[in-house]
Amino acid sequence: MKLILTCALTPLLLTSVFADGAFYGDPPDATHPWTIHDMNRPQPPVIKGATASTQEKPGQPPSDAIVLFDGTEASLAKWCSDADVNQPTKWVLHDGAFECAPKSGYTRTKEEWGDCQLHIEWSAPAKAEGSSQGRGNSGIFPMGQVEVQVLDNYNNPTYPDGFAASVYGINPPMANPLNPPGQWQVYDIIFRRPLFKDGKEIDPGYLTVFSNGVLVQDHTAIEGGGGHRARSKSHPFPEKGPLKLQDHGNPVRYRNIWFRPLPARAAEGGEIGQLSPEATAAKRKEIAKSIRDKAAKLEGREKMLHLMESLCYESDPATAKAAEEMNVAALAAITKTPAAEMESKKGEVKQLADALNYLINAKAIPAPNATKDALDKIIKEKGWDK
To answer: Which of 63, 164, 379, 384 is most buried when burial is the number of CB atoms within 10 A of its CB?
Structure first.
């Protein structure tokens, strides 16, 4: 709403350069390479979203997802035996579901990856047999390293850190939204692996889990991956690993398994999160160059404003000099405008004055600035500051 009101009250913001977001939000700093509301920042890619599953039919994955199992023989071929990756999986295809056969062992994907959004649906046997950990037990292992528990906990208590949707051995789920046995349960998992640098942990890695649409793990630290009876300690994970599913002696079924790779975090050279000063400086330099390259293809006022905008990201003496010369020329042209036509210059005058003021406040150009002072005088004399 603030942006809409500003544009409505200030016509000069509707010019092409201001519509691109220049000289508007707070400038870059030591750990943020972009301005606030920066149109130089990459646009999110357009995808087609996922559709919800029903008990009768699995939903459709988003258009950029990598499908690991969709109920077909072809997708079954993406899996192998965990004991011997050269052998096909011993799990079986049954009514469009992927089922753990007796004594089949763990199964895993042939493909390997790292951080991801993982969607997976599972169902415990409709006939509930056993109790605690002996009922509908399996497990989901992102990268084969840490377990998100699968267990029929519908009216079936167990130790909390081994509950369905627990990070096994580490953290219980915050709620139990499970459907009755025989029905499909839906897990949506956000996985971030631990990051180490020079032998030191810089990011412990996290799991966020939704069970049947309910948040049950909220950015839970991985703490080394957990395990049975023993407390795990943080350690590096490989860069990539398979998805593993556990054979715990129960015929648990799976369907509609897909994942989306996640972009790298700032700590590993990506742009997710606060960047280091070194990465920020490099990115600001890259942005400044892209704006200068664009300016080189422009003429007149647009070229001047783009050169000025580039100074928000990187100090460059040659660019600053060229922009200043164009500022002086623009002021000279304004002052030569006949009095009867001066009102038509209002937007142009205020735009340039605002841009210069922005650069001064951002310490991108020195103050005082003779051109800005002259423009401010014109604005005051004409009453355009009211």
So the answer is: 164
